[in-house]
Amino acid sequence: MKSWSIGVIGLAALAAIVAGTYGSRELMLAIGIAASAAVGIGWPHFLAVPAKKTLASVIGLAGAGSAAAAYFTPAPGFLDWTPAFIALGVIAVFIIQLVRGTGQVQRLESTLGCSAGVLLSCVGAGWIAAARFNGVKEMVLVAGLSAAAALLAGIIRWPDRIVAPLGIVVAGLIGPLAGLVFSDIAVVPAVLVGVVLGSVLVSFRRMATLRRGRLNVAAALGMGVAPVWAVGALAYFIDKLLIY
C-alpha cells in the first residue's frame, strides 16, 4: 500500500470517532474497542517485529480495557484506570520478550516499540472521556476538525519540511474557526487544541515516511488509526484544564 493510504485510514477512523460521540455511549465504547483492536493488530506489523499475534493481543486488550474503564468509571475520574492498563500492557510485553528467550532477534525494538503501542492504544480512551465530560460534545468536534486538517495536509506528497509546518498551521487555524462556528469555545484553547493535535499527527507522518519497505494492509491500518486514537487524551485534558 502507498504511504498516503495511512492518512486516508486515519481520516476514516477520525470520522467514526467524532460521529460516535454524537451517538449512544454504547456506540462510542464499541468504536473504542474496535480502534484498540486495529492498533493492536496493525502496530506490530508496522514495526515489523516478531511474535505479532501475541503482541497484538496485548496491545488490543490493554486498549480495550482502558476504553471500557473510561466508559464505566463515574465522573470525574474517567481516566483513573488508564495508567493501570498501560502498566499491565507494558509488563505483558516484557514477559513476552522474556519467554522468547535470550538471543532472539529484535528483542529491544519489539519491547520498546510495542510498549509505545500499548501507550497509544490505552490513551485513546481520552475520546470517550471527552465525550462524557460535562456532556458537551463541541470540544470533540473542534478537535476532530483540527486533526482532520492536519491529516489532509499530511496526504500531500510534499517534503516533510513543508508538510510538517503546514499541517500544524492549518490545524491551528481550523481549531478556532470551528470553535467560533460550532460552539462558544474561546479562541486560545481552540488554537492550542489545533496546534497540539496537528504537531502530534505530522510527527507520526514523519514516522511513516521514514519506514523502509512496502506497507501491508495491517501496517497501514495500525499506523493510520494509532495516532488518531491516541490524541483523544490530549483533547480531553486541554478541555478539562483550559475550558472547564
From TrEMBL:
The organism is Arthrobacter cavernae
Q: What is the lineage of its organism?
A: Bacteria, Bacillati, Actinomycetota, Actinomycetes, Micrococcales
What keywords would UniProt list here? Membrane, Transmembrane, Transmembrane helix
For this entry, the protein name equals Permease
Q: Which residues cross the membrane?
A: 29-48, 55-72, 78-99, 111-133, 139-156, 163-181, 187-204, 216-238
